[in-house]
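Collaborator request, handled under Task 6.
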Amino acid sequence: MPVDALTLSDVLDAAVPFALPLRRRFRGIDVREGVLIKGPSGWGEFAPFDDYSDAAAARWLESAIEAAFGEWSQRARDEVEVNAIIPAVDSSAAASLAREAVLELGCRTIKVKVGSADLLDDEARVASVRDVLDTALGRGRGAIRIDANAAWDVTRAAAALRRLVAYDIEYVEQPCASLGELRELRRLVEVPIAVDESIRTSADPGSVRVRDIADVAVLKPAPLGGVAATLRVAESLDVPVVVSGSLDSSVGLDTAVAAAAALGDLPYACGLGTGALFADDVAEPRLPVGGVIAVGRTAPDLPSLLAARDRLDDDRAAWWRQRVAAAWAVKG
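Structure tokens returned to the collaborator:
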């Protein structure tokens, strides 16, 4: 069925709400919820977080419809190098997760969540990951990037980065919330700055003048509207791009992998190693092998899909269907 001929009923008839438990609490949640949508092209995923507005969720629905009923851009590569991710856990747990990422998954780049109430907790976490990388790969051969999720003001960010720079930080992602704060911070520190929320939450992501505030752009295809939308944003930017997932299931992660695969220039490892955060999935987990993820399509297996569906009670499943309808209405 052509995308422009779709109706809301078509989408809802193809929708399966799901819930997947996480190994550890991440982004304030223990269970990842969303809706899988089956179409002639494969499966798409609609999973905007609860704090997303209907307008923001509409982009996510565009992404899901593109995956299920449309086509993705031609790939420029067959595999994508990825980073692992360490949540805001204690230093011992961070070291354990880092060893798993390096020794079992082959990752050479690790993103560490920072922005804790106590800077010493952040430093201990980063230090433990640096120790694992240097021990396993050799000093300076593994990369650390950190993500503050806009938790800092300029003063706190500058103080934190002056300490954390000792651990050879590749870049800091979204240290502050506002464009003005990022611009000011950039004059105070030597650590390269990447932006995510500044692009993703903009009414017009392609209009953000990233070079004025940062050195790297992090693009998340699902909340940007899909693969084609992500490529349009990337073309409008004048800084290197890192493609990242959005805590997607193995099905949803395919969209982010497809976007990364279609980019002509991809100088950094991409944030697509989030499959390791799930305790269960709707299919075989999309985990890195040798530090890379192969490009391709994932279909849920029936027992896993039914289990994921049945974790939601009737009220919550209905809430997700209503959310699809609300996003559809905004999408027009």
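The cover message to the collaborator said: "The mean pLDDT is 95. The radius of gyration is 19 Å. Please let us know whether this matches your experimental observations."
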